[in-house]
Amino acid sequence: MPTITRRLAFGLLALLWLPVGIAATAPVRSMPWPVELHAWLSLVVTAPCGLPLALACLRLQRIGYPGTAWAAFAVLAPVTAVASLFAGLLGPIAIAIYALVISGPAWILYAFLRRTRRSRVPRELHYSGP
């Protein structure tokens, strides 16, 4: 798969996973599927809120932990979707805050694995500057 196609696919998935998750979990809050246009347009506001978790998982994959990235996404994405569904009652800013906070464990995992991976590299291979 060419790089541009991969980036485009990741970008679309990163922007769409949270609105799709909120729409899929909407019956949990015992509300019917949105039939009004403004209800569907409100999901557009949630699209960028899914980026922090998607980017953390992308970073995990890039440093050599694709299984961990998928596992983190599989655990944190449904939690984020349900939390965002209920945070939607407070407004779009609350959705963004919930999504940022819930993506925190993935970022912490990334920082920890990056640090431990870097400590396993022999010191001679580290870039020391000019």
Order of helices and strands: HHHHHH
Can you count the helices? 6
Which value, in Å, is the CA radius of gyration?
A: 18 Å
Distance between the termini: 36 Å
The tally of structural domains comes to 1
Model regions low in confidence, pLDDT < 50 over at least 5 residues: none
Mean pLDDT: 79
Overall outline: globular
Strand content: under 5%
Largest sheet report: none
The strand count comes to: 0
What is the helix fraction of residues, given as a range?
Answer: over 70%
Helix/strand class: mainly alpha
Description:
The chain is globular, with a radius of gyration of 18 Å. By secondary structure, the chain is an all-alpha fold. Helices cover 73% and strands 0% of the residues. The chain contains six helices and no strands. It has one domain.
Summed up:
This protein is mainly α.
Defining traits:
130 residues; mainly alpha
SSE layout and pairing:
Layout: H1 3-25, H2 37-46, H3 51-62, H4 66-87, H5 92-102, H6 104-120
Helix pairs in contact: 1-4, 3-4, 3-6, 4-5
